Amino acid sequence: MEEFQEGTQKRWIHLRNILERPGPFSRPEYVPSPEILEFLLTSCKVLIIGAGGLGCELLKDLAMMGFRHLHIIDMDVIDLSNLNRQFLFRHKDIGLPKAEVAAKYVNARVQGCQVVPHYCPIQDRSEGFYQQFHVIVCGLDSVPARRWINGMVVSLLCYDEDGVLDQSSVIPLVDGGTEGFKGNARVIVPGVTACIECTLDLYPPQVTYPLCTIANTPRLPEHCIEYVKVAQWPKDNPFGVDLDGDDAQHLTWVHEKAVERATQFNIKGVTYRLVQGVVKNIIPAVASTNAVIAAVCATEVFKIASTSLVPLNNFMIFNDIDGIYTYIYEAERKVDCTVCSNIPQLVTVEDPSKMKLKDLVELLRESPKFQMKSPGLTTTVNGTNKTLYMSTIGAIEKMTKGNLTKSLLELGLKDGQELMVADTTTPNAIIVKLAFKQSDTEMK
Ligand SMILES: [Zn+2]
């Protein structure tokens, strides 16, 4: 027993050096104590979202750092193409759920670690599930998933009657992202610092596609093209050379094969032009970028969970295309942020007799502020709930499709009308308030 304790003490000596002594970067209010290490080892719960390139790194980093009550959530299974960087997986694991294999590997390897895997989409877990964590760290490759978890942590915030934030309801979110040789890491303290939605304009339309998606569950014409490019071309090797994005013969071959694959998955829209765009625009996943960003994120989790050190404020970008470059700045909160501001979102309507419901849906999808996927709109007209449009449920889509071509006036909507807008990018509906420009003239 004594021997074990001795071993344990040596094992965490480096953490003790940081947690049991003050230092120049300590938080001013931090009181060094052995209890903090005790807390990290025995009760601190951290959720890792994503078990891919970043997720494997994060899980390894946090487990080695002393965190034991780790949960990891991911809806994907392991693909051959993951193995070069998702190092917790082996060839024999192909086809198995990433979260489960990663958890099993780390539990077997790191003494005392108890990783709990969740093989499902993040949307399948409730508020109660997310509430149990001290910190949540994301290694995601999808913007909608980031927006969803951001909406979730913001929705967990509690305010008292005077509007003062209850600090115990705050679950900090550490978010990492990589694209080729570029990456970023950020710390989000919901209700306090800028959230994902505050800085939504930072995310350009996605041009790269996760390999697991294109191999197993293609949904877009781009996924089919990408599959032919990275899997079928090397296998069939039709011209005996590497694929050249400027060679018309090559592109024609990719086009034909991509159309075949698209037909197989009932996907429309594979054109020669799109093939050109996708073939020339691939950004591969780079293992070293993932390692750097995950290490930064894990360090931030440690700073936040231990309360010992001042966390990143609040956005770091990393780039090692031409040498190594890092830059930190403070992303600012948006006063009227759709998620964290508690202010209904005003939509100005020039002429409600001309603006059709489909124009409003289009605006919710296209405007940089909303960037929704398939918004569903409901409201209250004369005291009764009315579904204006919903595309996600077939039967309701059919029933409400006719509304799309009606003007806002024809639908009985008034100036100041509040619409509840649901979308896959948010766990809770957003309130959109209509502001008619016409209303001045009507009143005269
Ligand atoms: Zn915000």
Overall structural domain count: 3
Provide a count of the helices: 15
CATH domain class name of the largest domain = Alpha Beta
- Cα end-to-end separation: 87 Å
Major sheet strand order:
3-2-1-4-5-6-7-8
Mean pLDDT score: 91
Secondary-structure arrangement, i.e. CATH architecture of the largest domain:
3-Layer(aba) Sandwich
H/E series, N to C? HHHEHEHEHEHEEHHHHHEEEHEEHEEH
Helical proportion?
Answer: 25-40%
Backbone structural class = alpha/beta
* Distinct compounds present: zinc ion
| Radius of gyration over all CA atoms, rounded | 25 Å
Envelope shape: globular
Give the biggest sheet. Answer: 8 strands, mixed
Poorly predicted parts: none
Examine the coordinates and then state which fold CATH places here, giving the name of the CATH topology of the largest domain: Rossmann fold
Instruction: Please indicate the percent range of residues in DSSP E strands (runs of 2 or more).
Output: 15-25%
Question: How many β strands by DSSP?
Answer: 13
CATH superfamily of the largest domain: NAD(P)-binding Rossmann-like Domain
